[in-house]
Amino acid sequence: MKHLFFLMIFMATQLGCYAQGNPKIDSLYAYLRARNLVYPYTLDNSHPWGLHKRFSTGFDFTYEAYRDKQTNDGLGKMLIKRWNDEYIAFKEIRKTLMELTDEATVSYSYEYHQNDADTIIMSMALKGNSDCPINTWKNPRENVKYITSAPEVISFKYHYLKGNKPRRNLHFYYDLIADSTKGGRERFDIQSLKKEITPILKDKSIKRRTFVCRCDSTFNISEYQRTAPYEERFTTVFHTSSTNDSENHFTIYKFNDEERAKTVLHQVMGCVRKHIDEHPTQSYIISSEDIFREHIPYSLFKGFSRKIYTDDRTSEKDNSSFCIYAYRGLEGFYILINDCKGNILAPPDWQTLKEFNNGKKTYYKDKL
Predict the structure, then answer these.
(1) Is 192 in a helix, a strand, or coil?
(2) What angle in degrees, to the nearest 10, is found between the helix axes of 2-18 and 258-278?
């Protein structure tokens, strides 16, 4: 009940921040979220201009998926739903952005409809509630301008290639500086939070396993992401360091029972929100909802022991992070804790991985 009380306070506070955004965007988010077409928005105070509220959605429908949706089996039905969902998201996003064009402080748009291809790119800055300057970047390949920072930013890109091998993708991103007074000026007190969380996860009935992911200065993370087979590339790469040195120590907690898993997750995240409520200027990123995600673990929280967006490299001497993820699969429900030094990395084969050392791997005999 104590954790629930603090969770209610935290959500009430953050919903106040969320209400500062444009009401048309609020309606768009609610529409997409109700249809499970967007993940919960995140709150991020690791930027210099204060507490950011952001959400994004994206689809990448390949030709192979388009082909397979013609089949009348389970996969085909799932892909048809995905194809239809993308079009629903496209129509609603497009309609909202057209309505917002006259309200934008700055806006750029580009459309191309020829040769069996449709491309729509829109980037706009809204008024917001911050003194953050408006900065832009011009993509030389597309000859299109994008707004990279503003009090309130929207970015939208849609491409549909028709013909014999159709492909369709959509990417939408929204970022609002919700509270300029709540920037992460202080290091997150990782040890204090761990003391709160550890007793919850010490229950002997919870199955657990550990693995470590290490990279030293000789290992090029960016090169690995480009050249490794797609299924072996990190699902998360979050750079917090100017070097490649990284050491990610994961503990995996497995639950067979959904209600038990949800209860423990809410207890853990209740501790996190209580800590943030008491220390709002410590540097963090947090999801607005506690959910278990399929396909890849969902990032619920990151706490940083240093300011991420700074030129002061002396802060890298204690470059630690503490991350919480949640995942649901056929084998059960999982909470993953990453106690990290250096860059934050998440490998795709975490269910069997025992150790990753500069690309060399060892595995457990079976999945947890």
Answers:
(1) helix
(2) 70
Query: Residues 81-86: what's their mean pLDDT?
Result: 82
How distant is the alpha carbon of residue 314 from its chain centre? 27
Cα pseudo-dihedral 310, 312, 317, 321, rounded to 10: -10
Mean pLDDT score, 20-43? 91
**Which residues sit opposite 251 in a β-bridge?**
210, 337
Span 177-193, mean pLDDT?
Answer: 88
| Residue-level pLDDT at 63 | 59
- Whether 61 contacts 169, CB under 8 Å: yes
* Whether the Cβ atoms of residue 253 and residue 334 lie closer than 8 Å to each other: yes
Q: What is the pTM of this model?
A: 0.84
Structural tokens at position 32: 């997409």
Residue 348 to residues 213, 239, 295, 336: CA-CA distances in angstroms? 12, 18, 10, 13
Residues β-bridged to residue 211:
250
Token pair, residue 271, equals 């501790």
What string of H, E and C letters represents the secondary structure of 325-363? EEEEECCEEEEEEEEEEECEEECCCCCCEEEEECCEEEE
Mean pLDDT, range 302-324, rounded to an integer: 70
Residue 104's pLDDT is: 94
Residue 149's DSSP bridge partners are: 135
Tell me, what's the pLDDT at 6? 40
Residues 6+ apart with CB under 8 A from 298: 39, 287, 291, 292, 325, 326, 327
What CA–CA distance (Å, rounded) separates 56 from 52? 13
Strands (E), the chain: 42-47, 50-61, 106-114, 117-126, 135-139, 144-149, 152-161, 167-179, 207-215, 236-238, 246-255, 284-287, 298-304, 320-329, 332-342, 344-346, 353-357, 360-363
Q: At what angle do helices 23-34 and 74-100 cross, to 10 degrees?
A: 170
| C-alpha 136 chain-centroid distance | 23
Q: What is the pLDDT, as a whole number, of residue 72?
A: 62
CA distances from 258 to 203, 223, 252, 291, 331 (A): 16, 39, 16, 11, 11
Token match 């999945």: residue? 367
Residue listed under structure tokens 């700055």: 106
